[in-house]
Specification:
9 helices; 17 strands; TIM Barrel
């Protein structure tokens, strides 16, 4: 008998194994199975009475002939996924050490690949958010509005805080400047982009695909914009994200091929007092049918990353909990990528 979670999902454990060169192990699904020929992180179903760690140790021994220390694995992400009516919860763990040499004991092909090449492999839908969790930023910082241009005509104060966010580790940032348009928005976006490039960070401009294309950076679509689009508004090499509030909008985002979405609010917020919070359970249920990475938004901060990853989120998005106050020492330290603590 297999283990089922409280929401009726079949529990599956998988491991992230890295060799001495940092390459990650993938195994290929055999013929006669769903997603035959696709690559996945090794593991298998959790049996009744097993913990995820126990199941992973058993599966890796059966599949690969290696022995792991179950008490040393650390969680990465738990992905709720609906495979056309077959609901699973893929619980993924980093496996830091093992004994033995991994080999395909069941005849399956193996591949060791660099993290940046994981996206080149065809994978089942549940594994795609795992790739993003391993390779893309866990925090998505959204800027506050720059404010009245007359008070800060050169954007000096705003840019100082923007640079502080980057210095504190942010590697994916959205410029949200709804009060600016035309030349002023273009000027500020260009200056923000220059700073992002210094830190090898990704910049997305809120709501302005033409400017994003002109500058060669990403765009973050509002939910209203999303509903008007039939296709992705930028070239594949420029990131596209979207704000979503429900399953219908996430479906639209996935259909046009966004790189990631933001879903919320998870908790009540002062900025949107009339919006009903999803809660973590609601967040997981809405994101379940979709393979794209989804950040959780709404009343959250870096300390919520553990809960976010447990419910299938790429990480946390936010403004006030991430943006430096007048006291720069109060800014949170952000990791470019993060595993679930």
């Amino acid at each position: 008998m297999n283990e089922i979670d409280s929401d009726g999902r079949l529990r599956v454990a998988a491991g992230v194994l890295r060799n001495a060169r940092g390459a990650i192990l993938l195994t290929r699904r055999g013929d006669g199975r769903a997603f035959a020929g696709a690559w996945e992180f090794p593991g298998g179903k959790i049996e009744r009475g097993e913990t995820a760690a126990m199941a992973l140790a058993r599966e890796l021994n059966e599949e690969l002939g290696i022995a792991i220390a179950a008490d040393r694995i650390t969680p990465v992400i738990a992905v709720p996924c609906d495979h056309g009516g077959k609901r699973i919860l893929l619980e993924v763990y980093e496996v830091p050490t093992w004994r033995g040499t991994a080999r395909g004991r069941e005849g399956q092909a193996l591949a060791w690949t660099r993290p940046e090449r994981l996206a080149d492999y065809t994978m089942p839908p549940a594994d795609l958010p795992v790739v993003a969790a391993l390779t893309r930023p866990a925090c998505y910082v959204i800027s506050p509005d720059p404010g009245d241009p007359d008070d800060d005509p050169d954007f000096a104060d705003f840019l100082a805080r923007f640079e502080q966010v980057l210095a504190d580790g942010a590697r994916r940032v959205q410029l949200r400047a709804k009060r600016l348009d035309g030349d002023r928005l273009g000027l500020l976006a260009a200056r923000c982009l220059a700073r992002c490039r210094e830190f090898e960070a990704e910049l997305l401009i809120n709501g302005c695909p033409p400017l994003a294309r002109e500058l060669g950076c990403g765009v973050h679509l509002t939910s209203a914009q999303l509903r008007t689009l039939a296709d992705r508004p930028l070239e594949p090499d420029l990131p596209v994200a979207a704000s979503c509030h429900d399953a219908e909008e996430l479906a639209m985002a996935q259909t046009i091929g966004v790189d990631f979405a933001v879903l919320g609010p998870v908790r009540a917020t002062a900025s949107h007092p009339l919006a009903s919070p999803l809660g973590w359970g609601g967040f997981a249920r809405i994101r379940e049918p979709f393979a794209l990475p989804v950040y959780a938004l709404g009343g959250l901060g870096p300390e919520d990353l553990t809960a976010a990853r447990r419910h299938g989120a790429q990480g946390i998005a936010g403004i006030s909990r991430f943006w430096p106050s007048t006291d720069a020492t109060m800014a949170p330290r952000l990791d470019a990528t993060a595993r679930m603590p």
